[in-house]
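User: Sequence for F-box associated beta-propeller type 1 domain-containing protein below. Tokens please.
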Amino acid sequence: MVAIRSTRKPYKFSTIDCERPKDGFTAGRPFPFKVGPSQCIRILTSVHGLVCVGILKSVPFNVISNAEYCDLILWNPATDEYKTLSKPLAFSHNDCYNTHESLFGLYHSSWDDDYKLLRVTWHPKVYIYSLKSDSWRKVESDIQRTRLHYFSQYIWGPSVSLNENLYFLEHVGYTYSIMRFNTKTETLKVIATPFSENQRTSWLSFTILRDGCIHLWVNTVINPVPLSSENQLWRMEGDGIWTKLENSTMILCDYPIQYHHRLHLMRNGNLLTYDRGCVYQLDMKTHNKDLCSYTTKTMRVWPGGKYIETMVSPNQYANK
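Assistant: Structure tokens for F-box associated beta-propeller type 1 domain-containing protein:
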């Protein structure tokens, strides 16, 4: 997983092994691409060892909704190779590069052996960037605007790729659902969750856990003082067919775990989280929270920065 060290400029990045978090963060390394003194970096999405980052100008918080990325870059942290994406046509530039209402998903298209970047806006408008052709195109969406007219209030989880589909967890108010993008038909579909409007639900995090199915961790507050919460694991079999698994637990938290960033569901069943410079391993059976690594509070970690090291090159189509 990639983390950005933002204590001073120029920016540097570190990585941490999500299955061996006690090894800690690696020493900071400079980014191979240029980041200006008045710019900052966001990690957006990743696949097959490629990480998509956005470069934007530092702007006041109250005008962030009008900010745009200066550049979008595909980068392999293992090899330091990178490619700056070409800009779309002027009429669609704001849709693709606006920093607000950002839904990005990176995937590999097997039928044409191409890496593609999905961008969905609140309208919703759908755009796809092709690494092979280094170009953007617009895709028609049949989702009604009334379904997403509060899109600006949405919180999106990182994308998960499974069986030529991208899945995103969407959250607005107390409503939770999953957005599915079929990479073959290039269509969107909204999938309901069984806990969509439970006001005690404090957070959800999802991952591919086992058996080739999407799984959701659901945290529901039982008592506010002292804080106790119930964790449930749900499995989705087909679109919207949910099964609650038996290994739900109760956790007594000394600090509200729902405020942690959920980074990774480990192979041993523990949950890796991050908060205020600390990486924790949460044992879902014993309820123990173990501090794995500590760094500065200015270290920025995004779940979208999780990747598997590969030698995939973002410039592989340059000479073809």
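Residues 8 and 298 are 9 Å apart (CA to CA).
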